[in-house]
């Protein structure tokens, strides 16, 4: 299976995100990338939008729902949100949407900073494997993978997608 | 239960992750750095409107203090609460009965409460290790200070303080001053500094307050404050532990202060940007001058804040290591 080129996806996503925000009447969105791939996608997206808005970064390790199975992620880093969350329109950006559990954890974390006016979800890829009622507002591409396949984003420049095979 | 690998330290699981936190002895630099990195992230959580994360929701942490403590007990409680764990604290007197009996009896009761983790402070060296080894193999044991042996979370919070104010350990001169003999903090700090690559570790104390064999820690020993403090980046003061002093180790407190008290004049011999640390409680006019304790080089109160973050890191990492070990044992049993 051939994977799409992230650079092309991002320029399309920028156009769609702009339209989405205009449609919603959102003038000053706050951009937040989820570590690590989501931050790379967010940086590329801001560049495509020609925006110099500050970028927040979120590490959801402390909010994951699989702590009792998988434990703590060993490379946890501080979240850094250089703006208020309370009453703001947020654009939450991740690289690959799979089960939706990372997004749930991210939203739980964001609500500990304040009550946002809205959250728009942007993902580079949707793997069509949702386990929760979470779907992106803007997506680069939707892929269906076999159960043993995963896709990995490397970056930050250039952004590249790679197909991985899990041991059977 | 799988028998313990004889070569594997008790506090590490089969994957080399923390499953108890008993001492810094033998822990690799990578693991200490991981604790500091995780603590940095928890420090950020402490600055939020909601200072709580859901990581240990549904877990029960039992603080068992056989010895008095204010800072350590309250910061462990806060750390557990900020991780969303349920926490209870028991202050157990050691004055009655024989200590061995009290310890075992108390712990049997606590085991019956299905606690997931014990934070133990005890006046006897090796108490936490004894509990981890014999009493509750499924429960994570965190050493909150045992006798003169170790106070590993204090050691790590001191390391976090140094790293946050000095950036790294590679080019630092660190002096530990005062009652080294009775200090578990000094032992933990010497081990941690060594493991993290600090090239110049000094201890400054009167001969009567130095343990035999101090050289084995790879430190330089000074009995003169002026020489010992010269050009250091970090000064760690220790409390004079009068309650642990049986014989005539010191002529008087006044004499100690005259020779080993950290005064503004003495501190001037250190680097101009040197930081002053103290594990607390401080004895003003016994080991440290008030002007120094409250001065702009003092980071004593920052240490308390960092202590919560370090304890959150250790609690979550040990719980994580216990989980991984249970899974590993299950998979191996199949």
From TrEMBL, chain A:
<keyword id="KW-0808">Transferase</keyword>
<dbReference type="InterPro" id="IPR050137">
    <property type="entry name" value="PyrR_bifunctional"/>
</dbReference>
<dbReference type="Pfam" id="PF00156">
    <property type="entry name" value="Pribosyltran"/>
</dbReference>
<feature type="domain" description="Phosphoribosyltransferase">
    <location>
        <begin position="24"/>
        <end position="139"/>
    </location>
</feature>
<dbReference type="GO" id="GO:0004845">
    <property type="term" value="F:uracil phosphoribosyltransferase activity"/>
</dbReference>
<dbReference type="InterPro" id="IPR000836">
    <property type="entry name" value="PRTase_dom"/>
</dbReference>
<protein>
    <submittedName>
        <fullName>Bifunctional pyr operon transcriptional regulator/uracil phosphoribosyltransferase PyrR</fullName>
        <ecNumber>2.4.2.9</ecNumber>
    </submittedName>
</protein>
<dbReference type="InterPro" id="IPR029057">
    <property type="entry name" value="PRTase-like"/>
</dbReference>
<keyword id="KW-0328">Glycosyltransferase</keyword>
From TrEMBL, chain B:
<keyword id="KW-0808">Transferase</keyword>
<feature type="binding site">
    <location>
        <position position="239"/>
    </location>
    <ligand>
        <name>L-aspartate</name>
    </ligand>
</feature>
<dbReference type="InterPro" id="IPR002082">
    <property type="entry name" value="Asp_carbamoyltransf"/>
</dbReference>
<dbReference type="Pfam" id="PF00185">
    <property type="entry name" value="OTCace"/>
</dbReference>
<protein>
    <recommendedName>
        <fullName>Aspartate carbamoyltransferase</fullName>
        <ecNumber>2.1.3.2</ecNumber>
    </recommendedName>
</protein>
<dbReference type="GO" id="GO:0005829">
    <property type="term" value="C:cytosol"/>
</dbReference>
<feature type="domain" description="Aspartate/ornithine carbamoyltransferase Asp/Orn-binding">
    <location>
        <begin position="171"/>
        <end position="317"/>
    </location>
</feature>
<dbReference type="GO" id="GO:0044205">
    <property type="term" value="P:'de novo' UMP biosynthetic process"/>
</dbReference>
<dbReference type="InterPro" id="IPR006130">
    <property type="entry name" value="Asp/Orn_carbamoylTrfase"/>
</dbReference>
<feature type="binding site">
    <location>
        <position position="121"/>
    </location>
    <ligand>
        <name>carbamoyl phosphate</name>
    </ligand>
</feature>
<comment type="similarity">
    <text>Belongs to the aspartate/ornithine carbamoyltransferase superfamily. ATCase family.</text>
</comment>
<feature type="domain" description="Aspartate/ornithine carbamoyltransferase carbamoyl-P binding">
    <location>
        <begin position="19"/>
        <end position="163"/>
    </location>
</feature>
<comment type="function">
    <text>Catalyzes the condensation of carbamoyl phosphate and aspartate to form carbamoyl aspartate and inorganic phosphate, the committed step in the de novo pyrimidine nucleotide biosynthesis pathway.</text>
</comment>
<dbReference type="Pfam" id="PF02729">
    <property type="entry name" value="OTCace_N"/>
</dbReference>
<dbReference type="GO" id="GO:0006207">
    <property type="term" value="P:'de novo' pyrimidine nucleobase biosynthetic process"/>
</dbReference>
<feature type="binding site">
    <location>
        <position position="280"/>
    </location>
    <ligand>
        <name>carbamoyl phosphate</name>
    </ligand>
</feature>
<dbReference type="GO" id="GO:0006520">
    <property type="term" value="P:amino acid metabolic process"/>
</dbReference>
<keyword id="KW-0665">Pyrimidine biosynthesis</keyword>
<feature type="binding site">
    <location>
        <position position="71"/>
    </location>
    <ligand>
        <name>carbamoyl phosphate</name>
    </ligand>
</feature>
<feature type="binding site">
    <location>
        <position position="99"/>
    </location>
    <ligand>
        <name>L-aspartate</name>
    </ligand>
</feature>
<feature type="binding site">
    <location>
        <position position="151"/>
    </location>
    <ligand>
        <name>carbamoyl phosphate</name>
    </ligand>
</feature>
<dbReference type="InterPro" id="IPR036901">
    <property type="entry name" value="Asp/Orn_carbamoylTrfase_sf"/>
</dbReference>
